[in-house]
Automatic annotation (TrEMBL):
Record-linked PANTHER family: N-ACETYLGALACTOSAMINYLTRANSFERASE (PTHR11675), POLYPEPTIDE N-ACETYLGALACTOSAMINYLTRANSFERASE 1 (PTHR11675:SF43)
Cellular localisation: Golgi apparatus membrane
Family: Belongs to the glycosyltransferase 2 family. GalNAc-T subfamily.
Protein name stated in the entry: Polypeptide N-acetylgalactosaminyltransferase
Any one Pfam family match given in the protein's UniProt record, by short name: Glycos_transf_2
Record keywords: Disulfide bond, Glycosyltransferase, Golgi apparatus, Lectin, Manganese, Membrane, Metal-binding, Signal-anchor, Transferase, Transmembrane, Transmembrane helix
GO biological process: one example: protein O-linked glycosylation
Enzymatic class: transferase
Record SMART domains: RICIN
């Protein structure tokens, strides 16, 4: 099986090489592998190709006294703010502010002081930085490029590859080609996607065209900070199967202010297969020699990472049947861990990112029929999560039985690399992850049979604290009604636990092992809040209202609770 897999790999590589060879033969202009050849040839005659390379590229003079220097936030005049609402609605960040800032502005060095005294060896792997973009704007994209060129050691940066995923923005066409050719020469290559690829396939496409030892992916609205590259490369040199993420600083979407974020987080996930941040555990902290050592993380946000290019493809690149946005970050995270590599966060490498509350592009793919994240996540669950995919479908019942395309090639990776099970991943990489229905005393709907009411989140955002509410029971059909009674006697959801506030009120708030979150489910059917010795009671409560704590009365029907499932 291993040999067959390898032959197939070699065959695919051969095809890719052939295609790349011929596209370059007919296209000695490195700027693009696609698009209108005659137009480019015409331009080649007229435009004297800039011979800028690693040696001749010079860092532009600092923009003294310009807005936004040193990562400062930018304010707009009344005149400049006219129509800003419209801009924000379209771009989801303040393009006006961004346009006022130099393309190569200075930003504060947000590294821990310890990082600054580390010296890295000179012979580190060479790097291709791949930046994919769809409807991104001029100033953030070029600021990303300049930050990479200006803050990467020349001898380590082989190229920056911009992949235009069929943007609709006028200036990102010919004008971008010309600008890059003039200012960056062969250091920056622009590839135009032949069709709308979506960010996942676009990243694959960029990486397949990369030639550096290491491929680094960045979003098209980033700012790489001082010394960002060396710690990533150094770690890859030590361990080629490590995928590394820089620490992500914040560039404010309202005013473009650059601010460092403390570290102390790892990547986690919701069983609905969305990414979240989780606190770094003592288990991980104690394994670090210094506080700035790279440390393992179960998952990553997805946009910013470095990997040995060949290793990246050995373990399957990205899933080329995932569309547009979402899911690929968890898929790669699970995969690299399960197949023998690791995913690590690197505190000394810092890159800023503009966090936008929305997307300036169409989010619906063809096959996903609107829900690309849902379908992409089905593919990942079906390939990597074994029986634990039940917990995804618990949140996405409507997807059960829906088409998720062919995953045989992806499953073949698991066989070829002899990868671990998802249970291995949970046990060894993410033992802190709460498994809703495993190792618990009870789980499922928590019903008060007489009132026919069940505990329910009412769909509220569980990233913050929310009330403990009830709603008509849904016969196990709603993930909002899935609660567990943990081995630690918490009445909980995936991340939050029922806790008393004041005398009789209850909220769901982040879990800790404090006494206030301790419950006992008595044989007589009551749920007793242990520290207050009060009982969970639906007396006088209707749909969508909050349950309260009341003095316990063992025979009171409004205090009778029944979980859907109890551990045997
Ligand atoms: O169809 C598309 N084609 C593209 O080329 C859609 C998007 N893109 C480009 C886009 O222009 C951008 O440069 O892809 C890049 C990422 O898209 P964003 O910036 O809209 O995504 P995001 O920052 O909201 O999303 C995060 O999750 C995604 C899941 O698929 C990707 O993994 C993103 O790279 C990822 N971004 C980060 O992790 C940045 C740090 C965020 C944090 C914490
Ligand atoms: Mn982004």
């Amino acid at each position: 099986i291993y040999r067959r897999g390898r032959n197939k790999y070699i065959f695919v590589a051969f095809i890719i090489l052939t295609v790349v060879y011929f596209s370059h033969k007919t296209d000695n202009n490195l700027v693009s592998s696609f698009g209108n050849a005659t137009e480019r040839q015409k331009r080649d005659v007229n435009v004297k190709r800039a011979r800028i390379n690693r040696e001749t590229y010079t860092i532009p003079e600092p923009c003294v006294g310009c807005p936004g220097e040193n990562g400062q936030s930018v304010s707009l005049t009344a005149e400049e703010s006219k129509g800003l609402d419209e801009v924000m609605k379209k771009e989801f960040f303040n393009l006006r502010a961004s346009d006022k800032i130099s393309l190569w502005r200075s930003i504060p060095d947000t590294r821990d002081g310890l990082c600054k005294s580390i010296s890295y060896p000179l012979d580190l792997p060479s790097t291709s930085v791949v930046i994919v973009f769809k409807n991104e704007r001029w100033s953030p994209v070029l600021r990303t490029v300049y930050s990479v060129l200006n803050r990467s050691p020349k001898h380590l940066l082989k190229e920056v590859i911009l992949v235009d995923d069929q943007s609709d923005i006028e200036e990102m066409g010919q004008r971008l080609d010309d600008y890059c050719e003039e200012h960056f020469g062969e250091l920056v290559r622009i590839l135009r996607a032949p069709t709308r690829l979506g960010l996942i396939k676009a990243k694959n496409y960029g990486a397949r065209n990369a030639t550096g030892d290491v491929v680094v992916f960045l979003d098209a609205h980033c700012e790489a900070n001082t010394g960002w590259l060396e710690p990533l490369l150094y770690r890859i040199k030590q361990k080629r199967s490590a995928i590394l993420c820089p620490s992500i600083d914040m560039v404010g979407e309202q005013n473009m202010g650059y601010s460092g974020t403390g570290f102390g987080s790892v990547g986690g996930f919701w069983w609905s297969l969305h990414f979240n941040w989780a606190p770094i555990s003592q288990r991980i902290l104690s394994a670090q020699k210094t506080r700035v050592d790279p440390y393992p993380s179960p998952t990553m946000a997805g946009g910013l990472l470095a990997a040995d290019r060949k290793y990246f493809f050995e373990i399957g690149g990205y899933d080329d049947d995932m569309e547009v946005w979402g899911g690929e970050n968890l898929e790669l995270s699970f995969r690299v861990w399960m197949c023998g590599g690791s995913l690590e966060f690197v505190p000394c490498s810092r890159v800023g990112h503009i966090f936008r509350p929305g997307h300036p592009y169409n989010m619906t793919g063809e096959k996903g029929k609107g829900d690309v994240h849902g379908r992409n996540s089905m593919r990942l669950a079906e390939v990597w999560m074994d029986d634990y995919k039940r917990l995804y479908y618990l949140h996405r019942r409507e997807l059960l039985g829906k088409d998720f395309g062919d995953v045989e090639d992806r499953r073949a990776i698991r066989t070829r690399l002899n990868c671990h099970s998802f249970k291995w991943f949970l046990d060894n990489v993410f033992p802190e992850k709460f498994i809703l229905d495993e190792n618990v005393l009870a789980h499922g709907e928590l019903r008060n049979p007489t009132a026919r009411l069940c505990l329910d989140t009412l769909g509220k955002d569980e990233k913050g604290s929310i009330p403990v509410s009830v709603f008509q029971c849904q016969n196990g059909m709603s993930a909002n009604q899935f609660y567990s009674l943990s081995k630690d006697n918490q009445l909980r959801r995936e991340e939050t636990c029922a806790v008393s506030v004041g005398s009789e009120s209850l909220i769901m708030s982040s879990c800790n092992l404090s006494n206030l979150q301790h419950w006992t489910h008595e044989k007589n059917g009551t749920l007793v809040h242990y520290p207050s010795n009060l009982c969970l009671d639906v007396e006088g409560v209707a749909n969508t209202e909050q349950v309260k704590l009341k003095p316990c009365e063992p025979n009171k029907l409004s205090q009778q609770w029944l979980f859907e499932h109890y551990a045997k």
